[in-house]
Design a protein that fits this description.
Blueprint: E1 7-12, E2 24-31, E3 36-42, H1 43-58, E4 64-72, E5 75-82, H2 85-97, H3 107-126, E6 160-161, E7 180-186, E8 196-202, E9 208-214, H4 215-230, E10 235-243, E11 246-254, H5 256-272, H6 281-301
Parallel strand pairs: 6-9
Antiparallel strand pairs: 1-2, 1-4, 2-3, 4-5, 7-8, 7-10, 8-9, 10-11
Length: 310
């Protein structure tokens, strides 16, 4: 018997009579029986799935879909998987040619969402018992997207790294830092040179670190963010990336829920010098956005990341 809560993502839809906040997006779904439904989904989850789909396409896959499966009572998991071009074309046909008020997919198209869900459930079973997180993209041979979240290494908790001391960590695992989101500027300590600023950052690895970067680089990012706000932008967070010509700074825009997520990470670090993993979807989206901003700006300048490892 099919589960109506096992569904294929189709497309975001507008429902003016039920406006949502920016933190939620109304999504049109289709289940195995061809029944169409709409549900409000966290915008951060939608953005993570969209990023995963783009990553899979860049990896060479020709067709990708997103699904939502009920894995326990009241608990669902969403992820992306490889599809056939015929399946994606059928989903596009459902979206483009079906009046949403009918609520039912024509019989000739029902088999496509049904076979996608059947295949997705088989993939999901293969992850049972594993430390599996389906939102950040790592592509395996099956085309499924997953991400293994490590526990915070003890050596990283409360650690401080800088360009001149990065190699002093010795045999510790190498966790990439850049691009990093600046959560807070910190007072200098004895090792802080006059031209450097200590900052608490959310690293590209999703873990905390205290690093030292040039004061001018932080100021550059803050100026860009101030100009964005003056032109009508909302809030944002400064992003720093080290390159062969020095540290570049920019920013990514944040929604209210993302701003709150970063504030919670900062509070957790202040209370216990680490934070819980996996981090929230809101924070994960910001890491992906920071990576995209860094990749674009570096590509435009013909530069590469000079990675700092914590």
């Amino acid at each position: 018997m099919s589960n109506p809560k096992d569904r294929v993502y189709l497309t975001p839809v507008d429902q003016p009579e039920e406006p949502l906040t920016e933190d939620f997006t109304q999504i049109l779904f289709c289940d195995s029986d061809g029944t169409l439904t709409t549900s409000p989904i966290e915008t951060s989850l939608v953005e993570l799935l969209e990023h995963s789909i783009k990553t899979l396409y860049r990896s060479g896959l020709k067709a990708v879909v997103a699904v939502c499966l009920e894995v326990a009572e009241g608990q669902s998991v969403s992820f992306c998987l490889k599809a056939s071009q015929k399946e994606v074309a059928a989903l596009d046909q459902i979206i483009s040619s079906l009046p949403s008020e009918t609520g039912i997919v024509p019989d000739k198209l029902k088999k496509y969402p049904s076979q996608i869900i059947k295949r997705a459930k088989k993939l999901a079973r293969s992850f049972q018992g594993k430390d599996f997180h389906p939102y950040l993209p790592e592509v395996d041979a099956s085309g499924c997207v997953s991400f293994l979240i490590p526990n915070p290494p003890e050596w990283l908790i409360g650690s401080e790294v800088s360009y001149s001391t990065a190699d002093d960590i010795g045999l510790a695992p190498k966790i990439p830092v850049f691009p990093a989101l600046v959560l807070e500027k910190l007072p200098p300590n004895q090792e802080t040179r006059a031209e450097m600023q200590r900052v608490l950052v959310l690293t590209v690895s999703g873990l905390p670190a205290i690093i030292r970067v040039p004061i001018e680089s932080i100021a550059e990012g803050e100026r860009a963010l101030d100009n964005f706000r003056k032109t009508g932008g909302a809030s944002g967070v400064v992003v720093v990336t080290d390159t062969e010509i020095g540290v570049l700074a920019g920013f990514v825009e944040t929604r209210k829920s993302q701003k709150k997520a970063l504030a919670m990470l900062k509070q957790q670090f202040e209370e216990k010098e680490h934070w819980d993993t996996p981090i929230s979807r809101d924070a994960q989206v910001l890491i992906l956005k920071a990576r995209d901003v860094a990749d674009t700006s570096l590509a435009d300048a013909g530069l590469n990341i000079k990675q700092l490892y914590a």
